[in-house]
Task: structure prediction
Amino acid sequence: METLQRTANRGSISTGYDIDNSLKLEADNSESMSRTPSSNGNLKTCTLSVWLKRTELKDGFYFSGDYGGAADPWFILGFVGDRIYFSTTAGVSGAGEVRPNRVFRDTSAWYHIVVACDTTQSTAADRVKMYINGVQETSFLVANYPNQNDDLDIMAAKAQGIGGYNDGVDYFYSGYMSEFVGIDGQQLDPTSFGEFDADSGIWKPIDVSGLTFGTNGFYLDFEDASNLGNDASGGTDFAETNITAADQATDTPTNNFATWQVLTGQPYAVIRNGATHYNLSGQVGWYSNVGSIAFTKGKWYAEFRLGSGITNMMAGVSQVESEQSWNNTHLGGVANSTAYTMGFYNANGNVYTNNGSTAWGSSFPAGTIIMVAVDYKTSGVVSLYFGTNGTWANSSNPETGANNFDMNSGSPLPNNLAISFAASPYNNGGNAEANFGGFSGFSIASGNTDDNGYGTFEYAPPSGYYALCTKNLAEYG
Result:
C-alpha cells in the first residue's frame, strides 16, 4: 500500500491537516459505487471509518454488501429512523444488529462514524464497537452482537456497495461523504482517524494515509474528480454508477459550508442535490428558506439560480430566529429580510424589503445566476449588493461600497441580528438553486474561489468577500 502526503496549507490560512474534497450522493439519482474483491480478506476483524453530512432525513444505506436473500448473510451500515444502523448478518432476523438509541438529525454538521469489529473477542460487546465523533456508543436500542468467531462478509470476496441500492425500496443515501476508510484485519479505535482539537474540543480528522489497510482495505479520499471511486491506498477502485465529476464537492469535515436548511419545519419543502435545491411539493404560494449557517458580521458572497419551472423567485438574506414565520410568505414581506426579485408582479429586478419595492435592476429570466454580496458592517448595519450573470446591478460595487442597498433603511435592524442567505420560490415545480461554495446547485463553467481559495463559484467573489464556510467564519465571522 502506498503512503500518501497532503499539504498542510489551504489558501492563506495555516490549518494543519485539511481535507479538500468530498463526494455528494443523491438518492433520487441512484448514485452509488461498487467493487468485488478478488479474494477474501480477514473475515473476523475489520474497521470502517467515514465522515458524513446528511442532506435528507430518510433511511439510507451508505455501505452494504452481498445482497443475496434472507438465507445469505450480508452486511449494511446506514441510517434507519435517523439512528445509525449496522448489521453483520442482516439476512438473518435480529442477528448481528447494533443500533444506538441516539438519533442524528443535524443536517448542518459532519458526523464521524467508526465501526470496529472483531468476532474473536470473548465479550460480546467487544465484537462490534461503534464510535460517533470520537465517543463510544454505550446505549443501544438494539444490541445483538455476532457470535464469537463468526465470519463477516465485510472484507470477503463479495460485492460491496457505497451509496445504497434499490430492492423494491429506495435505500440510497443522500448527503456528503468524506474520508471513507476500510481497515482489513485490525479493530482500531477512533484515534486512528481523528482527534479532539486542543482549543475547541471539537472532534476533527487526522491524516490516515499512513495506516495499514490490509488485503481488502480501502481509502476513498474523493480527490480525483475523474475517478471518484479511486482507492488511494492502492487497492481495487470502486466503479461509479450515476456519479460524475460534478458530484465532487469542497464541503468537507475540515471546512463545512452552508447549505439550505433541511429542518425547515415546512411539510411541503423538498430539499435535494446536496441540500442546494429547494422547492415545494404540490403547493401554491410563497415559501421561503434560509442557509444552514448564520453570521453577525463579515463580508459574504453566494450565488443563486432560477431553476426551470420557476416563474417567481426572490434571493437575498433574512434573519434566522426560530420565530420567523415562513409559511406562505416571501423575503421582504417578513421582518428583517431583503431580496432581489424575479417575476414578482411589477417588481421584477427590484429589491423588496419591509413590504416595499425599490427599483434596482432590469428584469431577468429563468436560468439567470443571481449574485448576492453582504457586508455586515456593525451590529444592526448591513449593506447588500445584487447582480446577475457577472454584472452588479444599479452600478453598485461591493469592493468600493458604491450604490449599496441599506438593509436597515426605514426599519432599523436589531442589534447582533443573526442573518443568513435566503430565497423564496413561488409555486410547485421549480428549484431555488443555491451555490454557497461547497457544492453548486447548478452547472458552472468556471471555478472561481474567494481570496482565501475557498468555494467554487461561476463568478469571482468581490475582493474581501468570502464563501460562507467554517474556516472563513473562524477568521471573519
